[in-house]
Amino acid sequence: MRFTKASRVLAALIALASSGAIRAQSPTYKVGRPPTEAELRAWDNVVGTDGKELPPGSGSAVEGAKVYATKCVFCHGATLTEGPAPRLVGGIDSLSTRAPLLTVGSFWPYATTVWDYINRSMPQGAEGSITPDQVYAVTAFVLYKNGIVKETDVLDAKSLLKVQMPNRDGFYPAKPEATAKNGNWKPTQNQAKPAAH
Amino acid sequence: MDPKRSDRRRFLKRSAALAGLAVGSAPFARAQALATDAAEPRPPKDLSYGVRSRFEISVRTVTLGGPRDVTPGLPPGEMGQRLTPLQDSTGIITPAPLHFMTGRGARLPDIDPREHRLMIHGMVDRPLVFTMDELRRLPSVSRIHFIECAGNSGMSHYKAMVKALQVTNSPALTKSTFVIQQVHGRVSTSEWTGVPLSTLLKEAGVQKNASWLVAEGSDANRHAKSIPLEKGMDDVLVAYSQNGEAVRPEQGYPLRLVVPGWEGVSNVKYLRSIKVVDKPYFLKVETANYTNLTPDGKASWYEFQVGPKSLITFPSDAHQLPGRGLYEISGLAWSGRGKIARVEVSTNGGRTWTDAQLQQPVLSKAFTRFRLGWDWDGEETLIQSRCTNEFGDIQPTMRELGELWGNRTQPPVKGTDVQDFWQIAPIYEFFSNPIQPWRVTREGSVQDALYKS
């Protein structure tokens, strides 16, 4: 019981300390230092849907096919379907069937996600070994194989944002950013109604 | 299970134990090993870090059904998943070496803490970089929290397990493979020590329009996840310590996020960067997966909280009851929303339920150990537990879970039954928290009575 009481007091103190937390802005501890330019370049490149972090560079599916053949084919297969790594093409219009096939083409809602994941996490075992030009190119290749862009379409920091993915509207809530901003990030609904017992 | 098969299973458990393989049945090994004690002097052990008894053989297992199980010729991976042997658990703390892990990328990161940095940047007044020593100078807190993979207890893990056992066709593997570990073992509880993320964010000065965070790790895979700022200001920890020592490499050494009560994928390991932003980044692990396809073909996303869940850990399908008489049913309950308020146990197939005793202290977003004495009459029966959290949320049955899922679509799919539900969502199902019944046979073997049916 003492423990419970103590944790309540602690919880109250924490609640007090963090109320209006977003507004209280003066540094308290003065520990740490500003990042260097090199650190920002190296560690600030997760790419969101605004593409603000996208580097210069460009590429089309024509060049992407060559990148794929040297960097990706071993795990994803010659036709992008063999595996053992996940299939990259197919499944468009399959999501509401009894055999849904979730791929980049059928399921991924944003092309920036494809670019970002290839850039930071692929190929497994040699992550970070692909140049920005190659990432644009191999992204274009995967999208081309899904019929989303043309073989000669050049992707760069601007055109990547204009790519319309087939499943862009396949998720709900439609705008998770809005619900979260109001503090209403949705808890899971996987709880039963109270039952009589 | 017939008596012959269960005898064989016990024998195989024993053989596996002697071979230093998997399964947690130390008592079987004990009698045999005594005979060899005197005859074989053992080399002295280095006790500076400590060892467990050689008779204790509880270990993590790997997820079955991954590419390496079904594709010959792939090199053995040191990453992938390692699953907690919940069947051997006592109390609420998972030993750090048995804490489940999900490894991304090809190699376990080997990070020198002297070189490690955490950068807070983006929509802040003062971007900051901290060394590990600097983080340790800031006020620290210790909290006990579970971490659970969003995919834990999913039907796909059961199907993959069955398929892998068929493909490998190994009796030893079959007899050391249990639903309680292979299907449910992606959850563990530790005491985590570190700095509240809110402290670091305040130190950097979050700007007015900010609403989200993007956390990124420094592992080869550079795992990254969007997290609402409000959660980050609430109870998220930047942890460097686990159960009283440095966080283990499998758990994110030297630094990780702990995001209490939320899906495991949010708990970014090897944490190097927190970027303050004004919208989620729609990264792979929040779009391509960790989203839930529903029967109308649309998927729900940006749901994070783990539902109320409980599981009888003894007896479970890893155990064999020697005969009728008194046993202590023991299990774990947890909820991503507050504390566990109640755990009920049924020993007669759900006809009646009895309140189990909850081990104090009951902590928010942590394992709660429950226990109930049980005098088994030796007849076949089903035993199961269900929990309620302090907000009155009750753990559902598989049927109720299927209905909840079906009814989330527009228009609602009425009367979605369990089989139909799992047919429709055969690959991606997250946040599974169904009641798990175990069938106890007259021979004392204990079997899964949920996934198999």
Describe this structure as you would to a colleague.
- The complex is a heterodimer of chains A (197) and B (453).
- Chain A has helices at residues 2-18, 37-43, 61-71, 73-76, 111-121, 132-145, 159-162, 176-181, and strands at residues 58-60, 154-156, 171-172.
- With 197 residues, chain A is mainly alpha-helical.
- In chain A, strands 1-2 form a two-stranded antiparallel sheet.
- By secondary structure, chain B is α+β, with helices and mostly antiparallel strands.
- Chain B has twelve helices and 24 strands.
- Chain B has helices spanning 3-18, 26-37, 67-70, 132-137, 155-168, 171-175, 179-182, 197-204, 229-234, 284-287, 398-406, 418-424, and strands spanning 61-62, 80-83, 101-103, 117-122, 128-131, 141-148, 187-196, 212-217, 224-228, 237-242, 245-246, 256-258, 271-277, 292-293, 299-300, 309-314, 325-334, 340-346, 354-355, 357-358, 368-376, 381-389, 438-440, 446-448.
- Mean pLDDT of chain B is 86; it is low at 1-33 and 70-74.
- Strand 3 of chain A pairs parallel with strand 15 (299-300) of chain B, so a sheet runs across the interface.
Q: Please count the beta strands of chain B (DSSP E, at least 2 residues each).
A: 24
Give me the side-by-side strand order of the main sheet of chain B: 5-4-13-8-9
Give the biggest beta sheet of chain A.
2 strands, antiparallel
Mean pLDDT of chain B: 86
Tell me the distance between the termini of chain B.
14 Å
Number of strands of chain A: 3
Order of helices and strands of chain A: HHEHHHHEHEH
Radius of gyration of chain A from CA coordinates? 23 Å
> Biggest interface in this structure?
A-B, 75 and 103 residues
What oligomerization state is this entry in? heterodimer
Question: Distance N terminus to C terminus of chain A?
Answer: 28 Å
What is the number of helical segments of chain B per DSSP (H or I, 4+ residues)?
12
Secondary structural class of chain B: alpha+beta
Portion of residues in beta strands of chain B equals 25-35%
Shape type of chain A: globular
Q: Report the uncertain regions of chain A.
A: 19-23, 180-191, 193-197
Biggest sheet layout of chain B: 5 strands, mixed
Contiguous uncertain segments of 5+ residues of chain B: 1-33, 70-74
Helix residue percentage of chain A: 25-40%
